[in-house]
Amino acid sequence: MENESLKQREGAVYGIDISDERALISYINPKDRRPVTVSKIFGEENYVFPMAIAKKSGIGQWFIGDEAIERKNDSDVTLVPDFYQKALKNENIIIDAQLFSGEEVLGIYLKRLFAMAQNLSGVRTTDFVCFSVSEVNKDLVDMIDRCAAGLGIPVSKVGVISKKEAFYYYCLSQPEEIRKHDVIAFENNGPVVYAIRLNVNYTLTPRVVSLDEKYFTLDEKNKDSSFDDILQEMLKGSLVSTIYLTGPGFSRDWMNESLQRAMMGHKVFAGQNLYTNGACYAALVRMEAVEWPFLYIGDNELKLNVSLMVSDLNQMKFYTLINAGKSWYEERGECEVILDGDPSMSLYIQKPDSRKAVENVLNLSDLPERESRLTRLRITAVPLSDRKVSVRIFDLGFGEIEKGSGKTFTTTIGID
């Protein structure tokens, strides 16, 4: 029997992995649980779209990916270099005697990419889109939100995660036998090898996840031996169930000794769509369409819960405004309460690994004097960082009986 508290899906969810060099896109249709990655050639695992875009002169015809590169020498086509970096830097680009912002060009690229996936999925309704990027920051999140709005997707249905988080969602969406022990992924893009190791503490509820990442430089003259040394370094410590290899740098042409070590007691998978599929699984979790008993608190995740103590049907309980483990760029909390008793508000801070809640009392003595239970307050909580939250309390009064004063009380609470 399915969990009735989980949201029922009506549309497809999408995962998009973007970087300076390439983009990949996957989707999961409403009745499916596993992602499908869009291939440039039907029936083949040809998933990588170069981060390239070109415009035909005089008309609004654009080409992306390989087609853009193939047409770069056409006299009536302009290839746009480095448009993703220009979008990140908020720079403008002159194309075909017209001025575009880098963000506009990125939006055009994403629109073409998304249209391909939507046509293949055959589903017109979109439940959620999650982007996987190299590094998350607020400006990037805001830019992607605007680009998604250009696709007709509201902010509430958009998520932005790092590659590290995409790996986390991918691993823990796999069968248990694949993740019985630690899981390691290696990404090879030229001389740099990015390695990440996932560990789950199954003794805690929720199950707390840690991710350890390292960067290595591959010896280009002796790749096999060099990567074998990297493997030995990452395999130290607890047991490892599975190893994933991704990125264009890995090849059977040079992996002999190192591949034998990787396969010694471990399952090994190789492919290019780990992050985009992980973003798809993240989309399901973000929209609460699947059960997720795991908690990962990384650089961008909130390190605290913020709650109120409220009376509900004469029972005192915590009402959570801000949840630890959520991205501080995206998390928001709002509710309305009726004040009963002294003009004050208690806010409780709790770390996710502690059962102790610390009380912070906000004095509301400037509120107009009213009878008990005739003051309604709107409380809004907005994270300022992964450790600090701004809380705003606005006096709404009580309908026609007591007009709102318009008074606002603001405080910042957090942990060290």
Could you please describe the fold and organization of this structure?
The chain has 8 helices and 26 strands. Strands 1, 2, 3, 4, 10 and 11 form a 6-stranded mixed sheet that branches. The mean pLDDT is 93. It has 416 residues and is α+β, with helices and mostly antiparallel strands.
Helix and strand layout, with pairings?
Elements: E1 12-18, E2 22-28, E3 36-37, E4 49-50, E5 53-56, E6 62-64, H1 66-70, E7 77-80, H2 83-88, E8 92-95, E9 98-101, H3 102-121, E10 126-133, H4 138-150, E11 158-162, H5 163-171, E12 182-189, E13 192-201, E14 207-217, H6 223-234, E15 240-246, H7 257-262, E16 267-270, H8 274-286, E17 294-296, E18 305-312, E19 315-322, E20 333-338, E21 344-350, E22 357-363, E23 376-383, E24 388-398, E25 402-403, E26 408-414
Parallel strand pairs: 1-10, 10-11, 12-15, 14-17, 15-16
Antiparallel strand pairs: 1-2, 2-3, 2-4, 5-6, 5-7, 8-9, 12-13, 13-14, 18-19, 18-21, 20-23, 21-22, 23-24, 24-25, 24-26
Computed CA radius of gyration, to the nearest angstrom: 25 Å
Coarse shape: globular
Number of helices: 8
- Any low-confidence stretches, pLDDT <50, length ≥5? none
Structural class: alpha+beta
**Fraction of residues in β-strands:** 35-45%
Calculate the mean pLDDT score and round it: 93
How would a crystallographer describe the biggest sheet?
6 strands, mixed
The total strand number stands at: 26
Amount of helix = 10-25%
Q: For the terminal residues, how far apart are their CA atoms?
A: 44 Å
Question: Which keywords apply here?
Answer:
416 residues; six-stranded mixed sheet; 8 helices; 20% helix; single chain; 26 strands; alpha+beta
